[in-house]
Structure formats: structure tokens, C-alpha cells
Amino acid sequence: MKKIMILSGAGLSAESGIRTFRDHDGLWENHDVMKVCSTQGWIADRKSVTDFYNARRADIASKEPNHAHQVLARLEREYRGRMIHLTQNIDNMMEQAGAQEVVHLHGTLTDLRCEACLETFDVGYAAQEPGISCPHCGAKRIRHNVVMFGEAAPAYSHIYEAIRSSSLFVAIGTSGAVIDIVSIAKEFKHSVLIDPKRQETVSIYDKYTYIDEYFEHYIAKNAGDAMDELLAIIQTHMDGR
Ligand code: APR
């Protein structure tokens, strides 16, 4: 069966006004990632990390899904059961666009997680209140529901399942800095990369090449402008032409 695997990154939400991480004005330009997104940073200063995610949660409250989010949400409905969308993004723009099945590999900003029972619960765009208790077990050790560097990302198991069962790989708006999209693209005969900027990678010959050289199709555009071309490629692929 023909199936589409979509892996998206911060570039998918850039046109909604949500900052990426490694672009010139990216989040990691103004924040020390090891202080606000690592287990060491969390152990050293829980309050700073909580404040960081409270600020990012408040930031997305005023953001709207963009055209690419809308198109991908429609695709999910049109190809239900024949498409899996894995996102590295922790924002809720896909859900705001109507998507119901997106797999958040790095967690979700609008949820909090209990460190005692590991259950999550929705907090919307509100700041995590000091002293908040877990609605499931009553414990008071609550944290952001975001995967930090240095800890496991259990949802990554979906990546391997998606590679095994899909026939077309689409990477949208990710630098490949955390999830190696080149290795994934090598597993596919058919693949699409959407990114307005060519990102470098190192080949096995220790030679600098570009990530887009490992993809069948490279659309060097912003996600929103790339949707028509993406839909045409998907249509051709799914129709078996
Ligand atoms: N449309 C498509 N792609 C875009 C757009 C856009 N409008 N704007 C920027 N991009 C591209 C950039 O060129 C870059 O290749 O999106 C990519 C964003 O890369 P990163 O900022 O590294 O974000 P991402 O790949 O999602 O980071 C992966 O790193 O820090 C961790 O947990 C964090 O999930 C994140 C992970």
C-alpha cells in the first residue's frame, strides 16, 4: 500500500510567526539550549526552565496555523490511514488547523507532565502555576511536557515504524540537526524535501554535501509556497502513476 511519511520541523511553523531554532533569529541564538532544554539545565534550575516554557506557551496563544498547516491537516483527512505526520514541533498549530493524528516526537507545549505518575494533562496557554498538583495522582512534581536533550524520546519508535511502512518520505522545515533526515531519505525511493535554505551535511566520504542532494525532489521554498508542488507529487505517487 502506498503511504506517506511526513516529518516536520520548526520551519513548518515559521510562517505562523513561531521562531525556529537555528535560523539567524532562532531561539537558540538567544537562549542557551543546555540551560533551558537539557536535563542538566533542568536539574540545575527548574524555575528558569519552567519560565522558558511558560513564555513559549504564552507566545503561541496569539499564533494562527498557516497555509501549510491547513493543507497538511486536509491531507490527513483525505489520506486517513495512508499518511503519518511526525512533527518535532511542540506547538499546537496542526491541531488548530484540524489535524487529529499528528505524532509529537518532542512533546507538546500545551500539556504538563507529572514526574511521579508520568501522566500528562492539558494546561492550554496558561503558565504553570507554582505548587500545582497532578490531577491524576495529586503529586506536586510537575514539569513541561517537552523532551529535553539528555532524555529519551519514546515517540521516536514511530519513526522506525513509519520508515518500514511508507513509500514516500516528505521532510518539511527541518535542518536535520536532531533527526537525521538524510539517513531516512536513503531508505526511500521517493522523497521530498521542503526548505528555502540549502542545509549542509557531511557525506560518508567526509565531504560536505547538501541535504537536498539525498532527496528525489527538493522544493527550495517556504512551506506555504511549496504546498501546490507537494500536492502534485503526492497525487502522482498515490495514484501510482
Ligand atoms: N518553510 C520551510 N522551512 C523553513 C522555513 C519556512 N518558512 N523557515 C525556515 N525553514 C527551515 C530552515 O531553513 C531550517 O532548515 O526550517 C529549518 C529549521 O531548522 P531548526 O531551527 O534546526 O529546527 P528543527 O529542525 O525543527 O530542530 C529540530 O532541535 O532544538 C531541537 O527540539 C528542538 O525540535 C527541535 C529540533
Explain the overall architecture.
Helix content is 33%, strand content 20%. The protein has 241 residues and is of the alpha/beta class. It folds into two domains: 4-17 and 64-106 and 152-239, Rossmann fold, CATH 3.40.50.1220; 19-62 and 110-146, SIR2/SIRT2 'Small Domain', CATH 3.30.1600.10. The strands form three sheets. Strands 3-2-1-7-8-11 form a six-stranded parallel sheet, sandwiched between helices. Strands 5-4-6 form a three-stranded antiparallel sheet. A two-stranded antiparallel ribbon has the order 9-10. It is globular. The two termini are 14 Å apart. Residues 9-11, 14-15, 20-23, 26, 88, 106, 173-175, 177-178, 194-197, 199, 222-223 line the site of adenosine-5-diphosphoribose (APR).
Topology:
Layout (H helix, E strand, L loop, with lengths): L3 E5 L2 H4 L12 H4 L2 H4 L2 H6 L1 H15 L6 H12 L4 E5 L5 H4 L6 E2 L2 E8 L5 E3 L19 E5 L10 H9 L2 E5 L8 H5 L4 E5 L5 E3 L5 E3 L6 E3 L3 H16 L3
Parallel strand pairs: 1-2, 1-7, 2-3, 7-8, 8-11
Antiparallel strand pairs: 4-5, 4-6, 9-10
Helix pairs in contact: 6-10
The chain binds adenosine-5-diphosphoribose.
The site of adenosine-5-diphosphoribose has 24 residues, from helix 1.
Through-space gap between termini: 14 Å
Largest sheet: spatial strand order: 3-2-1-7-8-11
Domain count: the total is 2
Low-confidence runs (pLDDT<50, min 5 residues)?
Answer: none
Global geometry: globular
Chain-averaged pLDDT: 96
Name the hetero compounds present. adenosine-5-diphosphoribose
User: What is the helix tally?
Assistant: 10
